[in-house]
């Protein structure tokens, strides 16, 4: 009987219409984010004649707004309809994305980045909550693996398109491309059926106070994720300017393609490892490999720069986004 119950759980369907939709929404949001992250430094340098430090300020404003709004977004997700929050935040995300072509000063661009960061913080919170409800418990590791793969692919496709659009000076076209993709996100948000909120046995909802949103046990995993994504954001924010300075825009594109290949290879098995064995098997080796390769990348800067970009696929293979999130989300 226990064997039969286990077999039935293993047959729980993962790739439903709703899971497909929310996964693609996740890809869309991060695709727009990474296209703009790569494109804007060159845009402000060429069109607004701003210094490189302003590129860092654009990233800081965006992410600071996204971080500040997340605790409030968590409250809203627990109190109100997740479907409405998803649709409204997707709509706001589209409207703000469409405003980039009319920003002709650093001040207006910074203001738009703050607004964009707020919508990004809300939509990433609600989509993560919805996806967690859609993934069967028996396939949690596999589901998280494929769901986070959408974000991982966006981390590659977005900068790759951003770099190439910057090479062609097609800034306005890139902004409208992001707007069109964001519009598709609204359509997908409308077709997602959100599972009901899980209630306690007495019919009450879970505690939604701020104290309930923070767990000390999750702090180590949160810190590791912070440092790894902090490193990647630093690379992505200035990759375009650095590659253009070296006249290696094409090599930088190959750098991202290598990442995509090895990311997809790792994602095919890390989720199953987390489900069938232990998440720690993936969780602990990945950060070690990441810091080893990122340190090695810094030590090899004296080498020929084109060779540096070619060698970087090994750094990408061991980078935590290839396998670390699957385990980290489960343990956290």
Automatic annotation (TrEMBL):
The keyword Magnesium does not apply. It is a multi-pass membrane protein. GO terms for molecular function: transmembrane transporter activity. It is found in: Cell inner membrane. SUPFAM superfamilies: MFS general substrate transporter (SSF103473). GO terms for cellular component: plasma membrane. The keyword Disulfide bond does not apply. This is Permease. It comes from Salmonella enterica I. The lineage of its organism: Bacteria, Pseudomonadati, Pseudomonadota, Gammaproteobacteria, Enterobacterales.
